[in-house]
Specification:
The chain is mainly alpha-helical. It has one domain (about 5-65). The chain is about 75% helix and about 0% strand. It has two helices and no strands. The longest helix is centred in the C-terminal third of the chain and has 28 residues, at about 35-65. It is elongated, with a radius of gyration of 17 Å. The chain starts with a helix and ends in an 8-residue tail after the last helix.
Length: about 70
């Protein structure tokens, strides 16, 4: 595995490990039962950044790897 893939997977692992804690914190920031925008936006941006990085890497790999049929 090359270094950039290792870094990407480590980043995904950190996000996965923290997501439960962050979700509990979001529960605590509810205002009358409703989420507040700023913390929700921060979490969403972090998740989107990770997703974008993964999709970018997948595009890089797809450009250099042969197409393989997947048997079902």
């Amino acid at each position: 595995m090359i270094e950039c893939d290792r870094i990407l997977l480590a980043r995904a692992m950190r996000v996965n490990q923290e997501l439960g804690r962050v979700t509990v914190a979001l529960f605590a920031t509810q205002n009358g039962g409703e989420l507040t925008a700023k913390p929700l936006r921060l979490v969403g941006e972090q998740l989107r950044d990770l997703a974008d990085a993964m999709l970018h890497r997948a595009d890089e790999l797809a450009a250099t790897q042969p197409v393989r049929d997947i048997e079902t």
